[in-house]
Amino acid sequence: MKNPLIDLEMKVSDLLDHETGDWNREALDENFFPGDVEIILKKKPVPSVEDFWCWKHNRSGEYTVRSGNWLALHSMLKEEFQEAQMQPSINCLKDSAWHTLTSPKIKMFLWRTLSQIIPVANTLKARGMKVDQLCQHCGLQDETLNHLLFTCDVARQVWALSNFPSPMNGFHPESIFVNFHYLFQMSTNIRVPKDIRCCFPWILWFLWKNRNKLLFEGSEFKAEDIVHKAYDEAAVWFEAQKLDREGEKCDNEPVSSALRRWSKPPRHWVKCNYGYVWNKPAKMLGAAWIVRDHHGDTILHSRRSFADVNSKQEAQLVALRWSLDSLAAHRLDRIIIAGEDATLLKVIGRPKAWPSFTSEFITLRSCLNHFTSWKSKVESRFANRCAFSIAKSAHQLQWGQSYVARGCPQWLSSLFLDDKG
Ligand SMILES: [Zn+2]
């Protein structure tokens, strides 16, 4: 806000020009900095509805537990993030922690260890808490993170049993940063077998868990159990990554399955595939729609181009709105609206889940009101290729006038035949 004295009761509707239904430029200039005014102007207002709440931490505008958790975590760790920025010398170590091959939970543990915010005796004391400073396991030295993870006798035994190569002169007695630097370096040493050099995050994690077990339950794991647990969990995690990668590979394989092909609408319905091509530098949009019946025969198709379309989001909206208006003008009904733009098709299918898109929905709702029945369907590019190809031609030829024709264009007849199957 630009003005130090602001009206706390101010609503979005106070910033609108109710005659034009658009933003009141004067009111915006009065209250916001120029950069913010530009951002606001890009968002189409919705003057016909009361102000409503929008959750700004995801695209749809609807609150989700996932985005809530994300925000909670970021707010919680704000101090830590600031501290990290102020300590460039260990930032590269922290960076390595984020890039370590391990689960997110353990990455966070490594990062918190390097940030010295894991609650061991000496960090708690530094925060003014009265605690027994000695290591609960050996009772010989102060409990620091470095002692716990590297130099206490249980840690020494675990590292020795793990076969992880030891530093020439043993782990550094004081500096956890030196020791982490060594671990990160060793983890990239291809002369050491991968399962050994990559197990260190789990070893550190189970040393920490072991310390908590002793503190809260009064018992400890044996050193060899800690090593077994670390290797077992690491193996399970690496196996899961392998499966994930294989899954992704399957998802990305070229589309040949019948599932991704264009499908005919059921009897008594027609299907309208619409497509668009937007050229950012020229701000040009080419759009097309095709209506086919349950035999797969083309009833009508149309194409046209639009100038001065400023964003991809606007292009998507213009293409869909034009298609719907055209279908209504041709008195078509019982329509399946199919396209590649998953967002807008989901918005019209379930507007309450997408409050950020209320303006777009209100625009589209007035078009959809012309139909007694309609459904929406998200298509792959392959299934939508006919509409996409015509949109491309409309863009290239810059057909400013809407062009409607019966049947399908001759030059694409083989694609249409292929779709029909
Ligand atoms: Zn100890």
UniProtKB/TrEMBL annotation:
GO molecular function term, any single one: nucleic acid binding
InterPro entries the UniProt entry points to: RNase_H-like (IPR053151), RNaseH_domain (IPR002156), RNaseH_sf (IPR036397), RVT-Znf (IPR026960)
Gene3D superfamilies with a match to the protein in the record: Ribonuclease H-like superfamily/Ribonuclease H
Signal sequence residues: none
Domain Reverse transcriptase zinc-binding: 91-159
Transmembrane segments: none
Protein name: Uncharacterized protein LOC108834669
